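Backbones bend. To wit:
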Amino acid sequence: MYGVNVRPNPEEPPPGLPTPGTLLVDTSRNNRVGEFRGVAGLYWSLRPVGGGREWEVEPRHVRPALPIEQLRARTARANARSRGEVL
C-alpha cells in the first residue's frame, strides 16, 4: 500500500487537529467561543456552546479557549438550559 496515507485509528483526528467538542476561540469574530465540529474544506466548523448555527473560520483565526473562557461558555449554556432555551 505505497502512497496511501493510512492512520492507525481512523476515528482519531489527523495530527494538529482538535478533537470534536474542543472549545476554541474565533479571533476574527470578537473572540467568540465555539465547539470544534470538524473540517469543511479549508475552514474549521465551530458551533456555539449553547447550541445554534455553526459557522466556519480559517484555522489561523482560531486559538484554544482559556479556562476562564471555557467556564463562561459552559455557565452561559447551563443558564440557558435552566431557562428552557436549550436542551
Q: What stands out?
A: The two ends are 46 Å apart (CA to CA). The chain has one helix and five strands.
